[in-house]
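re: ur question from earlier - yeah i can do the single chain one, its not a big deal. heres the input i used so u can compare w yours
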Amino acid sequence: MIKYIVLSLFIQSMALADWAPLSVAPYEILSMVDTIDVDKKGLYTITSEASMRVLNEQGRNTLVLKKIPFLPESTKITVIRASSITDGVETMVDLKTVRIEAAKSPEGGLAAYKDVVIPFTNLKVGSTITYRFVEKKTKQLIPGHFSVEYNYGMSVPEAGGHLTVKSAIPIFFAMSDPWKNLEIQNIKENEKFVLRVKQKSSLYKLPIEFGPIIRKENATRIQISSINNWRDYLKSFAGKYEKILEVKKLPASYQKIADLAKSANSVEEKINIVTSELASIMTYSGDWTTFEKMFVPRPLNEVEKLKTGDCKDFSIATVAILRNLGISAEVALTHRKSPSAQLGMYTIDPLDLNLVLQDAFNHAIVKVKNGQSIYWVDPTNIVSNASTPFSDITGSYALEVSTNATGLERIPYPSMGQNSIRVVKNYNIREDNTADTTSSFRFTGVFAKAVLEIAHSQNKEVSKKILMAFNRTDPKDAQGNYTGVNFNSRISTELKGVEKASGDRVLEAKDSKLYFSAPLSFTLNGLTVFNRTKRITDMYTEGASEDNTVLKVDGYDFVGFQEGCTILTPWFTVERAFIKTQTGFEVRDQSKFFDAELKAEDINSDKFSTHLSDIFYDCAATQTVEVVKLQPGQSLSTRLKDYSAKKAKELMEVSGPTSITSARHAYHITENLLSQNPKDKDALIQKLRAIRRVGYKSNLIDSKEYYQASDSILKVLLADYPNDTTVLTQRVWSAYFQKNPVDMTIHFQKLYPLAPKNYEFYTLGGAIAEEMKRNEVALGSYLKAFQLAENPRQKASSSVDIAGILINKGEIDKGIAYYKQAISLYPENTWTQGNLMSMLSNLKRYDEAIQLGETIMKENPYGMAKKSLAEAYRGKALEYYKNGRQTTAADLKSEAGEKLLRDVEAYIGKGLSYYPACGKCLVSMAAVYRIRASLHGDKDYAMKAKTYYDKANQEGEISKDVTLMSSREIDVILGTRSPAGKATLDMNVNYSNYSEVDLQR
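and the output i got, formated as tokens:
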């Protein structure tokens, strides 16, 4: 049991996801037994006995001088016994060698902590140490208050332990036990309140992932207190703070700050002046040399005189000055998130918001009330921003130090607009392919804080490099100058100004072509913390934010349809558009992060990982774009000659593997048209269609956010064109795609009397009838659509629709005929061919499926077609094997049997040549080698079988349960496992009896 959480970050080279493996732990707690006796004053005595084992050299170096920290003013430590055991030999510690040494003071202050140091000898990896000591508490901050917290397996592995608390005063507890490791007994015994906790099994749960939020389901913990109401606690504690604030006159320098702030117009401005001026005259330096000073600020006059203090001193001074200005302010206590080089910010949720724990807080701030508004102000920072709480305290719980407070409050996360980047960057490209750039920018929240904080904590030159990165100027090549930027300011509400830079290399010549560098937002770098490994804990992201940046390039135009990217998710959006302008082109970027906390189940979802991949592939691919220099007299209308709503509509009719790319091109066209005329009805219609298509990722991932974006456009169109049939048609399609049968029916009934009865109408009608399970009506509508189709592409689409209805009705051959008709009408749509191939395989018409698949491989070998073809070859192999066993190859040991296995291997091998990750194919190939190995007792065949089974489990994502029996059979042949009741494989058993079922396991 560890009384204090110390997330031991000795994992230097590990991927940041999952629980830490045992191999990284320095030592293991074999047993820890604590008995705590609490008296009526809340003072207590702990008798503790621990046994630990050294796991590696780091653990050896840690335990050789075992340190027990304590504060002499309030605690006394007595070591009773200590020894080490190495190779069965116990070496006692001479208690005369136990030392009390000054502990290392916390960074930024002085403390009176001491360490009891137990010097163990004769240690090596594998040694164990045991020690027993008594800890006696002699002073409490609040009389009658006792509290303690135990966390199990959160720092090092813990094999077991016992905790017993015997209290003369009532005690309350809260616990989290997600792995059912604890056994609890809560009773009254001999007039004492007794709590017994037994750890039943070994536990090691240290998360090693970035920004973990440790919730109840992520940790085994127990918190114990004699008070379960913060109001009762504050009756005594708040008075200590109010007594300090009862001054008739502010110290002189504080009064000077108050006078300066009086002229400010708003409460926010006054707060910022107070905290920034206070930061300019005070230096952080804590004084924790007495028990009282650890929890209570020093007197105001002393703080003002020394010009130093910790968070309590900064906060009490701020409250005093604000009250002098007539502003309602109180000191508040909170838990500042712990920074870690490996994990970023990590947070631990409280178990019970009412349970009073003396160590619940590690930071003091200020709570300001102004009418209905509440400001959470952290004056300890070197920069100030009253409007936006800093990210290391947002989301944490806070306690107002006042008798009016009723309990804990949660500090809110900032809204998206409070953490923002807005940049407009103009490029003037020189003949040497470098650019002179002018960037007008405005940063708020964390972005303004990042620049100004570095300016004060390091220097202005370093902060300018950060500023250049936000502005997408390469600090390696370019030199930047700034106007309107006050790097000396300590107020980080916003940072705005103009950056003029020269020397940034933005063009690259390659193969007689020019390419413009359009980097993505610097903020997207944060997405690199995600990886493919399953996440264990929820993640803290430091807050919602947005980045709106426009890159304006004069004198050049991009080549072709630069589709940009559109990634819309519940967690973030990333959008990039390339827009032609009168003088060149623009790259318009917008990225948003919606939440400060991300759930592990969301991060682990297919939807999250798919959209994340889209950023790294689709969006990243747009960072280099081919451009040409504009020629004199080249007008915008000339450059937009291929941009029309009609062209976008044609692209939206493209089917098959290129349909997504075509939809992206259509979307790009509409973005450019709408940049000229935002009310262009036809462009808006094609845009909402395109965004629905662009949002398709797979049948397993919903496109909800894309449908919502489409509906927002539709809402505008319906307001402007309430009776336009093209708009009303899209309303019906919207309900169809979102599986809303009620709206779909209502909207279609309104459309029916108004719409022209053309191809589009009957296609829509067929889709609705099919969705409503009215197949005969759907078939009639699709047949009518086929008759009215205006081109082969439309006829092919109707043929596929008709085929689907016929096959559902059981008219298989008719359906296949319509599929083949669609293929002949529009052979470019190899998706139709792929769907037919898969269908033929399901019908066991493998030769037809293979013939069709081989044609697709020559024309457009896309992924799903490769998989379908591989499975068709496997199906052919199984059928061939079954027929062969029934005719010429009844005995697999015969020559005909050997030939049968070779032919089966060839069919499966052909399939795997198209799609190596075909899991079922890998299992069947493994089975071929397993059968051969069993027939001949051949270990080489057995090893090949094992290799294919391993590939099936890993690359083919086949569960090990499917291949378990066969894998055991392989182990018997290899000699790594003995069959039940036998020492070796009996080769006299007739293994020639394998059926086609054996090729599937």
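The domain at 231-412 is CATH 3.10.620.30 (C8orf32 fold). not sure if urs matches, ping me
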